[in-house]
Automatic annotation (TrEMBL):
Organism listed in the record: Streptomyces purpureus
SUPFAM superfamilies (UniProt xref): P-loop containing nucleoside triphosphate hydrolases
A GO cellular-component term linked to this record: plasma membrane
Domain ABC transporter as annotated: residue spans: 3-228
SMART domains noted in UniProt: AAA (SM00382)
Protein name (Swiss-Prot/TrEMBL): ABC transporter ATP-binding protein
Lineage, broadest ranks: Bacteria, Bacillati, Actinomycetota, Actinomycetes, Kitasatosporales
Amino acid sequence: MTLHLDDVTLTYPDGDGRLTALDSVSLKVPAGTLTAVVGPSGSGKSSLLAVAATLVSPDRGRVVVDGTDTAGLDRAGKAALRRERIGIVFQQPNLLPSLTVTEQLEVMAHLSGRRTKAVRDRALALLDGVGLADLAARRPHQLSGGQRQRVNIARALMNDPAVLLVDEPTSALDHERGAAVLDLLVTLTRERGTATVLVTHDRAHLERMDRTVSVQDGRLSEPTVERS
């Protein structure tokens, strides 16, 4: 299970010309590893995640998710790939206020037409894995910010994705809760064998990542990160 971006270029209309968001970007993320993507606002980090998630098609280059070249997929095919093989952890959890913690996860399987006891069992197992087994019946307003982000992560793992894409998961958390969420992501990546990409502004824990890449003006480079 891997994610492979091969010579990807993405541009957007900009007046009479085109603005380059990604410039010949190549990135390979093996299964069971976590790659952090850092860079200033507007550098191309969000564009990289959008391309990797098949939400945006590049002008040039290939995006290969778990062996599937996404260039050969139509819109429905890409939507199915996202449901089945890509987990996305958004910056804000956006949990549904009327649903319990368990139901937040179950709805992901229901979108694929699965409504079995196995779905409930998997949801409960994932909640146990992120340390929320005791809160399975609570609703979002009864959770802390860190707990809601843990639900967000568990929900993204519900359909056993090959690729996990994480967008600024600690931006609304204090240092301690943010560190706990990053620790959890590292652990889950190892245990579940996902190819994980984490976009972050938090450079305090980069030594925990398997690799760190920097985006600047749409180009990718690999900064030196001291490991403890």
